[in-house]
């Protein structure tokens, strides 16, 4: 197991109290696993991604542990996380466009970044060139300013830089959301290639696009209102989901070939509960067509079949 | 109803405006009442520019846009402009920034009444608002008197459409209206567009997402760098794309039940095709769109930038 998250809870501090953005999340990642982390806005997927690398000032670690390659990851302690970042855990942020320093040529920025982490730049330079070439960029980009590159190019530069020190865990936060269809595909496939070549051991791919993530991920975890709803292999999630939320979500996605006139798709009525003071029990209860009395009690995130977890009383 | 003839938009760019950027080039298209036309393209394809020209937010450099037989460029003066917007309205991508944060929903509707329906009595107006809300399937009790921050993205987007429905609109320009909504609510807004179409509204649906364009539209227009590369009945364009760009684009769309490898294999099995226009003796890159089947047009394969 390269990553093991156990009962992680992270709240946001607000003037009106704690927003329970992440409330008891447990899962693990095998070596070489790409896990798609899907969910709607407010489901806690980005909060989970951020918690694994850097909590911002509003976030408060409430409970739970994270272990990476057998060692405890001090997620709650910003200073103690420093040696892990970039070396062990790395991030490709959502807006790669704004992740690069606009006043530095890219080569200089990378040099400064690598040195600031106590690594000899000359040692990694040949590897940097090799990897840039792998994603279809030539050495020239190191002499350019970020403004001179297109969105897709910047995204690829950030991907190469983030994984330069072969981190064990890479968090890709909505990396394809701002890109065009064809660029999306190139970026997603490049990330899967990084895993195949061993540049990263495992990856959490945060996205709201199930159709995209199942193309490259081995497993998918669907989150709802701060808790995991279901985790299984990508194929199982798409073809045989057991949690009612996953089922309704997948059946609401229009596909090429499905038309309004031919088959009218249905959305999910209602909206997710507020997380300031969430109701007890299953958080999908109010929108769920299968809800019954027992749903007043919170269902455990239990293994319903080998490698398939679901948090629903009716998922057996 | 809406007709675009050889519409072109050119911007001056560069330090002294010495260079030209062709945002839209020679676009022909038409929207009939009760028809949804999807403009599909990647960033920089000119799809939003076309929407803005229809809404008169920018003026075309060449070509003509006519609405119900009248030239849109000739609409001048306060009264004529207002009359135009009474019939043609737009809804945009980000519903969160479209509302004044200190105005409640009632006041947003009240502004429409003050501008366009001064003579309506309070009771008649209330009935009208409730009818518009019912059409977009919003419960008046849930939205009236609420501030924008108290409503969800899907509710706000539907509120914007309801606001447009209070006018006697015939034509709606929907520019990426669902890309900011969550998967479980976006289908409701799409279905709503389908219902409006059944009421005889013409809809220009602008999107970058091919599967959404496919779901709702009657006619699909694929744009690339300001040019129409392919145009035709949606089912035909998606089932039998002719232009290499359309075929490549379709194979890149992530789909739930097809992997990219399978899509690639299908693309290869289709083989390379020669441009039908050039084969008929047209000048490569210069000849116009060629009709493959009734209503299914394809642009020159070799036309670049």
State the end-to-end distance of chain A.
26 Å
Strand order of the largest sheet of chain B: 6-7-8-3-9-10-12-11
Count of beta strands of chain A: 12
Indicate the mean pLDDT of chain B: 86
Task: Give a structural overview.
Chain A has 316 residues and is of the alpha/beta class. Chain A has a single domain, classed as Rossmann fold (3-Layer(aba) Sandwich). In chain A, 27% of the residues lie in helices and 24% in strands. Chain A has nine helices and twelve strands. Chain A has helices at residues 45-51, 78-81, 106-116, 121-134, 151-162, 181-196, 210-216, 234-239, 244-251; strands spanning 3-14, 17-29, 34-38, 59-68, 71-72, 89-92, 169-173, 202-207, 219-224, 227-233, 302-305, 308-310. In chain A, the strands form two sheets. Chain A has an eight-stranded mixed beta sheet, sandwiched between helices. Chain A has a four-stranded antiparallel beta sheet with strand order 2-1-4-5, covered by helices on one side. In chain A, a hairpin with a 2-residue loop joins β11 and β12. In chain A, α5 (151-162) packs parallel to α6. With 305 residues, chain B is an alpha/beta fold. Chain B has a domain at 30-56 and 85-240: P-loop containing nucleotide triphosphate hydrolases (Rossmann fold, 3-Layer(aba) Sandwich), CATH 3.40.50. Chain B is built from twelve helices and twelve strands. In chain B, the strands form two sheets. An eight-stranded mixed beta sheet of chain B has the order 6-7-8-3-9-10-12-11, sandwiched between helices. A four-stranded antiparallel beta sheet of chain B has the order 2-1-4-5, with helices on one face. Chain B starts with a strand and ends in a 7-residue tail after the last strand. The mean pLDDT of chain B is 86. Chain A: Keywords: ATP-binding, Nucleotide-binding, Transport. Chain A: InterPro entries: AAA+_ATPase, ABC_transporter-like_ATP-bd, ABC_transporter-like_CS, Oligopep_ABC_C, P-loop_NTPase. Chain A: It holds the Pfam family oligo_HPY. Chain A: Residues 3-250 form the ABC transporter domain. Chain A: This is ABC transporter ATP-binding protein. Chain B: GO terms for molecular function: ATP binding; ATP hydrolysis activity.
């Amino acid at each position: 197991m390269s990553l093991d998250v156990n009962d992680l809870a992270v709240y946001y501090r607000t003037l009106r109290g704690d927003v329970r953005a992440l409330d008891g999340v447990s899962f693990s990642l095998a070596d070489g696993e790409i896990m798609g982390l899907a969910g709607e806005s407010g489901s806690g997927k980005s909060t989970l991604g951020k918690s694994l690398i850097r909590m911002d000032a509003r976030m408060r670690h409430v409970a739970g542990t994270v272990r990476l390659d057998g060692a405890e990851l001090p997620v709650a302690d910003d200073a103690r996380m420093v040696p892990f970042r970039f070396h062990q855990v790395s991030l490709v942020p959502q807006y790669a466009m704004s992740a690069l320093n606009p006043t530095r040529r890219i080569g200089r920025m990378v040099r400064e970044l690598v040195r600031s982490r106590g690594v000899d730049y000359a040692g990694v330079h040949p590897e940097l060139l090799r990897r840039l070439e792998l994603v279809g960029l030539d050495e020239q980009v190191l002499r350019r300013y970020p403004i001179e590159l297109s969105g897709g190019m910047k995204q690829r530069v950030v991907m190469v830089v983030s994984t330069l020190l072969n981190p064990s865990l890479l968090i890709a936060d909505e990396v394809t959301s701002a890109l065009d269809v064809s660029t999306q595909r190139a970026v997603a496939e490049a990330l899967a290639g990084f895993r195949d070549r061993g540049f990263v051991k495992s990856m959490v791919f945060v996205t709201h696009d199930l159709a995209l993530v199942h193309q490259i991920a081995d497993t998918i975890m669907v989150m709802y209102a701060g808790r995991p709803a279901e985790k299984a292999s990508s194929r199982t999630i798409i073809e045989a989901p057991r949690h009612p939320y996953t089922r309704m979500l997948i059946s609401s996605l229009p596909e090429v070939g499905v038309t309004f006139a031919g088959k009218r798709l249905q959305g999910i009525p209602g909206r997710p509960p507020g997380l300031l003071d969430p109701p007890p029990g299953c958080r999908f209860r109010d929108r769920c067509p299968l809800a019954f009395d027992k749903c007043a009690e919170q269902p455990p995130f239990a293994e319903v079949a080998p490698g398939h977890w679901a948090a629903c009383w009716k998922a057996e | 109803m809406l007709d675009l003839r050889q519409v072109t938009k050119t911007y001056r760019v560069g330090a002294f405006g010495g260079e030209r950027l062709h945002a839209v080039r020679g676009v022909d298209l038409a929207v009939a009442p009760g028809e949804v036309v999807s403009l599909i393209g990647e960033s920089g394809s000119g799809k939003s520019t076309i929407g803005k020209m229809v809404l008169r937010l920018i003026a075309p450099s060449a070509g003509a846009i006519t609405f119900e037989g009248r030239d849109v460029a000739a609409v001048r003066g306060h009264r004529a402009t207002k009359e135009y917007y009474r019939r043609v309205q737009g809804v945009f991508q980000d519903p969160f920034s479209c509302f004044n944060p200190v105005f409640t929903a009632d006041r947003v509707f009240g502004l429409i009444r003050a501008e366009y329906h001064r003579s309506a009595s309070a009771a008649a107006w209330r009935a009208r608002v409730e009818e518009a809300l019912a059409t977009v399937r919003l419960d008046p009790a849930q939205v009236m008197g609420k501030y924008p921050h108290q409503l969800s993205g899907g509710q706000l987007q539907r509120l914007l459409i309801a606001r447009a429905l209070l006018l006697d609109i015939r034509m709606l320009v929907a520019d990426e209206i669902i890309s900011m909504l969550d998967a479980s609510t976006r289908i409701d807004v799409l279905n709503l567009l389908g219902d409006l179409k059944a009421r005889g509204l013409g809809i220009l649906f602008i999107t970058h997402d091919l599967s959404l364009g496919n779901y709702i539209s009657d006619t699909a227009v694929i744009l690339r760098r300001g040019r129409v590369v392919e145009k035709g009945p949606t089912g035909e364009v998606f089932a039998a794309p002719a232009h290499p760009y359309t075929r490549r684009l379709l194979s890149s769309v992530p789909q739930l039940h097809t992997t990219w490898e399978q899509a690639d294999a299908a693309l290869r099995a289709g083989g390379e095709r020669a441009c039908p226009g050039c084969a008929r003796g047209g000048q490569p890159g210069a000849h116009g769109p060629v009709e493959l089947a009734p209503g299914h047009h394809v642009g020159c394969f070799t036309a670049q930038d």
